[in-house]
Amino acid sequence: MSLRMALLGLLTAYGPASGYDLAKSFERSVAHVWQAGHSQIYPELAKMTADGLVTVEAEGARGRKIYAITPEGGAELRAWLISHDPTGPARNEVALQAFLLPLLDPGEALAVLERLRAYTERKLAELEALHAVKHASPVPEGATTGVRFGNLALDLGIRQTRTTLAWANDTIAAIGRRA
Amino acid sequence: MSLRMALLGLLTAYGPASGYDLAKSFERSVAHVWQAGHSQIYPELAKMTADGLVTVEAEGARGRKIYAITPEGGAELRAWLISHDPTGPARNEVALQAFLLPLLDPGEALAVLERLRAYTERKLAELEALHAVKHASPVPEGATTGVRFGNLALDLGIRQTRTTLAWANDTIAAIGRRA
DNA sequence: GATTGACATGTAAGAACTTACATGTCACTT
DNA sequence: AAGTGACATGTAAGTTCTTACATGTCAATC
């Protein structure tokens, strides 16, 4: 369902687009929140067409198909946003490694934490780069809250990544003291 | 792979256990980090037995099978912990809803944020309850870092949940000012 | 004119995960 | 003696996701 909602959201915010465009949008903007490759996106768009949530508005060069969201699609997205409680399947590889970390001896654990810290730092740098770029991007139609589409999630992502980084630093210090 | 590693970790920390026990452990201790039901655990244990990572150490009453980790299993877990970089598939429903939120008008957006805040508060309460309980639990063997198994992840989880809560509160305030 | 590379769309096989179905044991209560 | 509920293990069908394969167009360069 989430993939479907992400696609409906992109079509609402940026207007009609092809599967290819949507796959690019995933890479660029939604990637830090939800990931999907083209091999998942194309079949999903086909199903959504069958379900009447989107239509093929036009077919362009190179077999390019332009999808547009239908009123039913808009309703589905709104309903989901308003009433779907995140099932939060809780699947976090960083946290799983943190969970299992005490099974290693202190030296190894420190090495793993350093690796996690480096990984988190890279991720933070990426998000902050996005944050810097977004000020130059246009405000899409449909953003009635006065907040630019995607910014709330970016803010949340940056805060969470900083929190993870602080945790890694504190844990390195704590284990370092013992070793 | 992660499910496999979580199972190997539990077997290392708490010693031999049945599929049923492991499913319970998932509910109790790893759940906030990685989730799996018994219908996923039983077949995985069968595959792991075939791969030589665990063995059926004993068969008890009621068809109960006790699995124990093998040296190969231990090596596999260590290798994964030390060198596997989290692929971070980035699939976060809360963040996705945050991403799409500006598509709603301010009143609706506020309602969604309130729902997300309530959800996050419930989750924080659960984690803090676990935190309170853990001080009464025994220190399992294999925890050579001097940190109790699972505590690092719990700390990380609590910090992240607090961060999400703060984000929800700040965002509610920000959108409230505009509305 | 040939090659390269971004554009563009798909399918296939398999792994991971969810939900529901299905079966049987043992201890304790009524 | 029958019923309940925790114990215990599995299978089946369906969805989602990953990785790899497969095909073809168009523009620009060499």
Structure description:
- Chain A has about 180 residues and is mainly alpha-helical.
- In chain A, about 65% of the residues lie in helices and about 5% in strands.
- In chain A, strands 1-2 form a two-stranded antiparallel ribbon.
- In chain A, a hairpin with a 5-residue loop joins strand 1 and strand 2 (about 65-70).
- In chain A, helix 1 (about 1-15) packs across helix 4, helix 2 crosses helix 3 (about 40-50) and helix 6 runs antiparallel to helix 7.
- Chain B binds a DNA duplex (30 and 30 nucleotides) through helix 2 and helix 3.
Write the layout of secondary structure elements.
Two copies of one chain form a homodimer.
Chain A: H1 2-14, H2 19-30, H3 38-50, E1 54-59, E2 65-69, H4 71-83, H5 93-100, H6 106-134, H7 151-178
Antiparallel strand pairs in A: 1-2
Helix pairs in contact in A: 1-4, 2-3, 6-7
Chain B binds a DNA duplex (30 and 30 nucleotides) through helix 2 and helix 3.
